[in-house]
Amino acid sequence: MKTPLCDFVAAYEQSGAARLHMPGHKGRGPLGCEGRDITEIAGADSLYEAGGVIAKSERSAAALFGARATFYSAGGSSQCVGAMLCLALQQSDSRVVLAARNAHKSFLHAAALLDADVRWLWPEPYSLLHCPVTPAALEAALAALPEAPAAVYITSPDYLGNLQPVARLAEVCHARGVPLLVDNAHGAYLHFLPVPAHPLDEGADLCCDSAHKTLPVLTGGAYLHLGRGVLDVEAGQARAALALFGSTSPSYLILQSLDACNRYLADEAKPRLAACVKAVEALKADLEAQGWAVAESEPLKVTIHASKRGWRGDALADVLRRGGVECEYADPDDLVLMVSPQNTPGELDRVRALLARAGRGSDAPRTPPRMARPRQAMPIRAALLAPAEEVPVEAAVGRVCAAPTVGCPPAVPVVVSGEVIGADAADVFRYYGIEKVRVVR
């Protein structure tokens, strides 16, 4: 597999050319990577008008993933989420998007900027991070709308590793001529499993992958994939949509890492992933034998229901941290570990040993607070752009949410811009350690 972008930059670095162009470090600096950090010089191509080395690399990525087309992002999946929503709205007379509630806040930001009318698929029972969508529930939600929405939007896998039945949901959508958009930020590797399980393999129309989350790519590297469903999107449209949400100075270091990853995906990924999946399965089995409640999840996540063994998830994360293991995410209930083939067997053994020594915790069992569907008092766009103030959670009850208050991870809003914050929502905020909320003045 050729790496045209990496090859061009390496040749330029070796040429010794005087860099009378951006960036200001001129290829020299303390990090050691400055020599490969360039801008849109002659021959380097330009991300949003790609026709040279970047376009060649993207075509290689599309072939590897089986996509109709693939486009690079140096702004993570957040940039691609906005582009997906933009493309769906451009292809429809409707401004309505039907979305699973556990959407990343980048979806909310894009909906506000594009003035989309979001209707939520609500989790039953309520969960902040998990919103399972069945084909029957999706069919009922679509039938309840007065007209077909511009798109259905789901997150799969979610932050805890839960997978949606993408293939069956795509069938429901396509029967009504509605495109299915999938935030697959945590699942770029899924196409390269022994049995491919990527949203593109299951019929998604548009899909974004955070390559950096599960592949050997620098932070910020992501893909926007065009599937083979009901949307007819041209390359120029996709690039324009990405440009709307991205910097005009995308990092060439990130782009090179995406280019280099093509060689990894072509030559190494499948056998290494197969071995890694087996190693993670063995780790999960060992942890269950130790007495931990390990959730069903996508293959490279280990989600431990810490509260079922008397632990707070964040306290258990501290135990691991003191032992030299940093987890991906922890909250009062759960702890999440993300594994890739780049992890060593010794690192997984360290997890085994630390959790074996941790044993049972002393916390009393608890039930996460439930929240009813909030009332939408203002459009998302109006609330997000309105004058706002930050107030303590207790003072926010009865007020309208402005910018959503949530950390990353998990970046899933408790209350959405424009919704009225109820007492039950305040309980959820407090449960997840959120003490202040931005509300409309």
Describe it.
The protein contains 15 helices and 12 strands. With 441 residues, the protein is α/β, with parallel strands linked by helices. The strands form 3 sheets. A 7-stranded mixed beta sheet has the order 1-7-6-5-4-2-3, with helices on both faces. Strands 8-10-9 form a 3-stranded antiparallel beta sheet. A two-stranded antiparallel sheet has the order 11-12. A hairpin with a 3-residue loop joins β9 (329-330) and β10. The protein is globular. It starts with a helix and ends with a strand.
The secondary-structure element order is HHEHEHEHEHEEHEHHHEHEEHHEHHE
Helical fraction equals 25-40%
Task: Note the main sheet.
Answer: 7 strands, mixed
Question: What proportion strand?
Answer: 5-15%
- The residue-averaged pLDDT reads 97
Quickly count the helices: 15
Count every beta strand, where a strand is a DSSP E run of 2 or more residues. 12
Low-confidence stretches: none
Radius of gyration: 22 Å
End-to-end distance: 56 Å
Shape: globular
Based on secondary structure, the structural category is alpha/beta
Strand order within the widest beta sheet: 1-7-6-5-4-2-3
